[in-house]
Specification:
Length: about 150
């Protein structure tokens, strides 16, 4: 396994750990939205520190103004996703929630790649990818079977 694949695997593990920890934070604070806000504040602080320490140069004002407006609202989508995790994990459990979330991520990722949304590289939806999605859906059924 190359380092990029290993990093992706670790990132996925970090998301599951973070989701479980912050779901419990939401329970203890009695507010999934407050837990999401705390998480985003800490994440923002960490990201700013790492960016300041590692950036070779910062974007110019001109380049900032050329960013399409809709891209600045991705944080709202993140807030919805993260708060939903914190709301749903105490009700569903981390395993079932992650199985549904991962499948949703893969379905949307396939559409984003197929159509090249957000100026990303296009990758067609193939028969084998469609079969993979069906296998994921079958996996959800098996994972959540009682």
């Amino acid at each position: 396994m190359n380092y990029v694949a290993l990093l992706a695997l670790l990132a996925g593990a970090a998301i599951a750990i973070q989701a479980g920890m912050n779901a419990q934070l939401g329970v203890l604070l009695k507010s999934p939205l407050l837990a999401a806000a705390v998480t985003f504040m800490v994440a923002c602080g960490c990201a700013l520190i790492v960016a300041a320490m590692t950036a070779r140069q910062f974007p110019s004002a001109t380049s900032i103004y050329t960013v399409p407006g809709y891209l600045w609202f991705s944080g709202a989508i993140s807030a919805f996703g993260v708060a939903s995790f914190y709301f749903l994990i105490p009700r569903m459990g981390v395993g079932p929630m992650m199985s549904f979330a991962l499948t949703g991520q893969l379905l949307i990722a396939m559409l984003i790649s197929h159509y090249g949304w957000f100026d990303l590289p296009k990758t067609s939806i193939t028969f084998s990818k469609s079969m993979g999605v069906l296998a994921m859906i079958a996996g959800i059924v098996l994972i959540n079977r009682r």
